[in-house]
Amino acid sequence: MNIRIKKYEKTDIKEAAEIWNEVVEEGVAFPQTEQLTQESGHAFFERQSYTGIAYDEESAKIIGLYILHPNNIGRCGHICNASYAVRSDARGNHIGELLVKHCLQKGRELGFRILQFNAVVSSNTYALRLYKKLGFVRLGTIPGGFLMKDGHFEDIILHYHEL
């Protein structure tokens, strides 16, 4: 695979929405419960500060994406937030790491000073390992902060990274 990351375009919507919806359907990482349609997905991806699309140059397939947006407004508007999704059959190939690194750079370029994650689910060991490797600081744990798809609650861990 030869992975590149580019800015979202409307022509990416079908594959981007499928990847996003796959993570939503798994019910173990994203807070959303509603699936994106092509119309709602395009509006969602367009209104972000940046939506990055990871694609394989060899196959021309989209294999992952991230969204980057302000975490808050006004006096806290310099803090951004992001979410990442990788197609299930492409996981384990360090695509998430490429997405996070690109996101850190893009956040800096857009003038943000801090990237904050509000809700990393404690059972998401791959994400936790990656964020530690990339120098994110763990802020603390919110017990039972995430409702898993099967109905039980898991802790969430807040993180930040100075940009």
Quick summary:
The chain has about 160 residues and is of the alpha+beta class. It has 4 helices and 7 strands; from the N terminus they run E-H-H-E-E-E-H-E-H-E-E. The protein has a domain at about 5-115: Gcn5-related N-acetyltransferase (GNAT) (Aminopeptidase, 3-Layer(aba) Sandwich).
How would you characterize the overall build of this protein?
The structure is a single chain. The chain is of the alpha+beta class and about 160 residues long. The chain has a domain at about 5-115: Aminopeptidase (3-Layer(aba) Sandwich), CATH 3.40.630.30. The protein is about 30% helix and about 35% strand. It has helices at about 15-25, 40-45, 95-110, 125-135; strands at about 5, 50-55, 60-70, 80-85, 115-120, 135-145, 155-160. It has a 7-stranded mixed sheet. It is globular.
The CATH architecture category of the domain at 3-115 equals 3-Layer(aba) Sandwich
Count of strand segments: 7
The secondary structure category is alpha+beta
CATH superfamily of the domain at 3-115: Gcn5-related N-acetyltransferase (GNAT)
Q: Kindly report how far apart the N and C termini lie.
A: 29 Å
| Beta fraction | 35-45%
Query: Could you state the order of secondary-structure elements as H and E?
Result: EHHEEEHEHEE
**Percentage of residues in helical conformation:** 25-40%
Q: How are the strands of the largest sheet arranged?
A: 1-2-3-4-5-7-6
Give the mean pLDDT. 97
Major beta sheet, specifics? Answer: 7 strands, mixed
- At the fold tier of CATH, the topology name of the domain at 3-115 is Aminopeptidase
Q: What shape does the CA trace take?
A: globular
Treating each run of at least 4 consecutive H or I residues as one helix, how many helices?
4
